[in-house]
Design goal:
mainly alpha, 2 domains
Length: 186
Amino acid sequence: MDSFVGFYTLHSDGLNASDALSQFDDASSQFEEKVGPITDSVQEMLHTLEWDLYDQADLLDSAISGALDQLQSFDEQATDWETVIFEYEAAELGTREIRRAGVFILFAVPFVFSLMGFAGIVFANKRTCSSASFNSIRIAGFVSAVCGSLALVAASVFLCASFVINDACQMSSLVIRDFEPFVGDR
């Protein structure tokens, strides 16, 4: 509006001489009718934002600081969890050879006793080895029963443990996926 007044001040003689003063007044009034409410609305919105945000700056700052503190606490907790996981992985790697030997023994011992039982059955008809054959058959039967029972119990325990570990891994991957937009790929 000040620009319209300045234009009129500079060019009033030319507007009067060209008989364009009424058109200029119409343009000025239409501009004031259409643009005036928009500028008033924008100005009111800017005042509202200034008063609401500027007056609430301390509250916003404390809320942001609280959120950052919580994220930092979560990051420290995640680092602690990561350290514990690395310790478990190191312990698992340290016992890998022992576990392999244990699995080999679980297969080798029953295999040896099965061979003893098979040899006892084969030599059971010979009179010279009949008592030894029957004893080897009895020992093989006893060891097979014990090893079979232990194998079922061990298989059940290991199956349950694998389900628990698998569920924990799946849950941790979901948690990572949920927090990835906030903390990145860590």
